Every structure is written in C-alpha cells, then in structure tokens.
Amino acid sequence: MTDSTYDLIVLGSGPGGYVAAIRAAQLGLKTAIVERENLGGICLNWGCIPTKALLRSGEVYHQMRHAESYGLSAGQVGFDLQKVVARSRAVAKQLNQGVTHLMKKNKITVHMGTGKLTGPGKLQVALNAGGTADLQARHIIVATGARARDLPFAKADGERIWTYRHAMVPKDMPTELLVIGSGAIGIEFANFYNDLGAKVTVVEMVDRIVPAEDAEVSAALQKALEKQGMTILTGAGVQSLKSDGKGVAAEIKTADGKVAAHRFSHCIVAVGIAHNIEGIGLEELGVLVENNRITIDPYGRTNVPGVWAIGDVTGAPWLAHKASHEGIIAAESIARELGNKDVHPHTMDARNIPGCTYCHPQVASVGLTEAKAKEAGYEVRVGKFPAIGNGKAIAMGETEGFIKTVFDAKTGELLGAHMIGAEVTELINSYTVGKTAELVEEDFINTVYPHPTLSEMMHESVLAAYGRVLHI
After folding, report:
1. Contact at 8 Å (CB) between 219 and 298?
2. 273 and 318 in contact (C-beta within 8 Å)?
3. The pLDDT value given to residue 243
4. What is the pLDDT of residues 410-454, one digit of tens each?
5. Beta strand spans in 82-227 (E)
6. Beta-strand (E) ranges in 297-367?
C-alpha cells in the first residue's frame, strides 16, 4: 500500500488525459496520471494513429496498382498483411514511448492500473503490478474515454465479427467483408480492406453515408467508393448476424423493405461507442451522468466540486483533438482555482471543431452544413469549387472532389466549410482558424494563396460564394 498526494490526478491517459496532465505540470501543479493499459490511450495505441498507418499502406498499394496512369511501371505488386500490421503496431509503439518520455520530462507520476474514485479527492488504483495505491488530490479529471459498441444480437468475437480493434490486427485477410456503419471508423476500414482487394459491402441505416457531413459530400464520397468497387447500401439494416467459424451469415433489410440472406468472410461492427463510465465511482460520489455521459460546464467541471471530466465521456463530438483541447481548458481552470491568476482559461465553441475522415478521397469539415445553416434561420451564400479546376490536383492525378463554403449572406461570417478530395484533412485547418478568429468573406478573399497548391481551391470556393470565381 502506497500513499501519494497531488494537486491533480488524471484518470486516463488518452489524448485528453495526457495533454491535461502536461499542461497542468507546465503550470506548476504536482500531477499524476492513472492508466490501466497503454499510455496514449485508445487513440494513440488502437485508434487514430495506427489506423492512419494502415490507411497509408493501403493508399501506397493503391497507387502502385495504378502506376501506369503516372507513366510508371511497378511490375508485379503485392502485400504482406502481417508486415502491414507490424508497421502499424510499430508506429503506435513509437508514439507510446514518446508519451512515456513526455511524462518523465514534465515530472508527471504515472500509476499503471485501474482507478476508482473512493471519496472527495480520493482515488484508489488497483495496480497492474499488484497491490493498490491510495492517491489524494484537490482535483481529479476523469478522462476514461469510450469503447466500441456491440450489436445487441451479435457481440464481436474477434474471429469473424470484429470491432475496430480486431480489424487493426487481423489474423487473416477478409475476402468478402461486411462493414456495419458508415461513420469515419467504418468508412476508413472499408477503404483500407477494399484497397487490399477485399470485396466490401457497407450497410448504413440512414439515407446516406458519413451522415454527419454535408449532403453533397456524402453523395460524392459514395460515388467515389462505388467506383472503387464497394457495394454501399443506405437506408438499410442488418436484421441478424451469425458467425459459424467459416464466415458470417447476415440478413440485410434494404431500403425497399426486402430482406435477403448474405454470406461474408468477416464483419466489422462500427455502430458507435459506449462511454467508459462504469465502475469508476461516479455514482458513489453523486457525479451527474445524463444519457450515459458525464455532464460538465464549459470548463470541464462536473456537479461535484473537485471532479472534472473531458473527452469522450462528456459526449460528442468523439474526437481526439476535442479531448485534448478540453484537457487544456480543464487544466488551466484548475490552476486558476489553485491560485494562478496569470492563466486565463477559455471556453470552446463546438462549431469550430473540425472533423476528418481519412478514406480516399479524404473528407473534412468544420461548422454548419448548408442544410443546418438554413434550418438555423440563416440566409446563406454558398460557394463550391471542383478539384478538376485546380492545377495542383490535376498534376497529382487527384481530381475527385470539391471544396464548399457556406457564408452568412448578411454578415459575411463563415458558417461552415466542407471538403472532399486529396489532403483535405490538412487543408481544413485554415478554415478552422478563420472561424475561430471570426474572419469574414473579405478576409479570405484578400488573402494571397500560394500557387500551385491545393489550397487555391479554398480561395476559389470563397470567391464562388460571392460571384467572383476565376478558374471555372
């Protein structure tokens, strides 16, 4: 039994938790972090980062198979699935070691084990190495994240029915793959396995894929993925799903109401997440939980003094960068409560949080869709510019996609930006900065964009919204 007292304990070391710990340490707080599995959490070890490594392998393989379109000859190409997976795991390991280094650099004490709130300012850790540690702190941040949600009638078995975690370390290559759900996770894995040659079917219960995106983006992405060979069923649902050791039997109800039986070698279930709120002492302390998420104020405070929450456990959007930013806000707020009057915490506007999907073509967005802007009562000006009109995109051989901007016609405020195409996940941040800085159309129009770059499409989209487009 060991006893330790801190200014702040962070429960969970994902992108929200470890960033909160670092910021707190920078502000002079004696800080500890508790992690039950791997520093960096799901995102770094089993989510955001290693999936991008897989997708990069799939993208390179796709380009190799289409070398002729660039005047190149690659000869006979192939892949070794286990080497692809090994590279992804090596990337995750490298970054996990990086977080370990950051903890030491910032003098953050790490307790590896499962933590539980046991009273005001108290947290007990069942240590992975054995025994327990009783920790105390004036403030505790809950950053326990989320996990994949199972289908109620077919739990993932890791053999034929997979969650994203199983899909990252496959024992064998799917031949016919069913993907249930077309959010970012579902579409990214569908794209990866499709690139490697699997016959992929995506089932989405609503009427379009990536349903959080602008409707025009959803339609363009579906067209692009179907062109790559995927089968996409929208307005459809899986009625039953059974694994028999040799494959998966599924009954799928399509939009016309018909139900048909299908066989697949494997299935990935990507139907959302469940918050990790069980068994960590929230009920005993009286922390308010509504709709299975912890309720917080704009700075991360719960209803219980000294208990804070950030990231996925607080609800949508379930994004690593949202969690990291919430972690900074909470850490700075705690430092101020502990007497540091030189730090000035800020709140975060969820409308300024960008979202990215790393399929091919990529999808990125920030702010309101055109439909949501109109629903909110705005009179809008909309501009759109296609990749086929951009010199850099043509030179890259990446002419699928477009950039769409939505402005308030009365004030010139950028309400939303929506992109599909090459590297748009890198481009979106310029619009995010613009929204955060409250720039208006004139600021974007008067900005000089370098040539030749993909970013010129961003300029042209704004120009198009105001009748001044140049290259179409």
Report:
1. no
2. yes
3. 93
4. 999 999 999 999 999 999 999 999 999 999 999 999 999 999 999
5. 109-119, 122-127, 132-142, 146-148, 161-162, 176-180, 199-204
6. 307-309, 355-357, 362-367
Mean pLDDT computed over every residue of the chain: 95
Strand extents, DSSP E, 339-401 = 355-357, 362-367, 380-386
* Selection from 432, 419, 366, 431 nearest residue 393 by Cα: 419
161-167 long-range Cβ contacts below 8 angstroms, 24+ apart: 161/241, 161/243, 161/248, 161/266, 161/267, 161/269, 162/266, 162/267, 162/268, 162/269, 163/268, 163/269, 163/270, 164/46, 164/47, 164/51, 164/189, 164/268, 164/270, 165/46, 166/268, 167/193, 167/268
Whether the predicted model's global pTM rises above the 0.85 cut? yes
Which residue shows structure tokens 């040539």?
451
Is-contact 161 267, C-beta < 8 A?
yes
Predicted pLDDT of residue 74: 85
64 — phi, psi (to 5°)?
-60, -40
Output the CA–CA distances (angstroms, integers) from residue 286 to 120, 141, 307, in the order listed. 10, 15, 10
Report the SS3 class of residue 81: helix
Count of CB atoms within 10 A of residue 106's CB? 15
160 CB neighbour count, 10 Å cutoff: 23
At 344, give phi and psi (nearest 5°): -125, 90
Q: CA distances (Å), 345 to each of 200, 300, 348, in order?
A: 46, 11, 10
Phi-psi map region of 421: left, alpha, beta (phi>0 left; psi -120 to 50 alpha): left
Catalytic residues: 451
**Token duo for residue 389:** 């009109």
H or E element, residue 471: none
Number of Cα atoms under 13 Å in the Cβ half of residue 412: 12
What digits encode the pLDDT tens for the residues 224-267? 999 999 999 999 999 999 998 889 999 999 999 999 999 999 99
State yes or no: pLDDT of 320 exceeds 90: yes
Query: Is residue 388 within 8 Å of 394, Cβ to Cβ?
Result: yes
Q: Which segments within 373-436 are labelled E, that is strand?
A: 380-386, 402-408, 414-421
Distance between CA 141 and CA 360 in Å, rounded? 37
Q: Residues with Cβ < 8 Å from 152, sequence gap 6 or more?
A: none
Note the pLDDT of residue 291. 92
Q: How many residues does the chain have?
A: 472
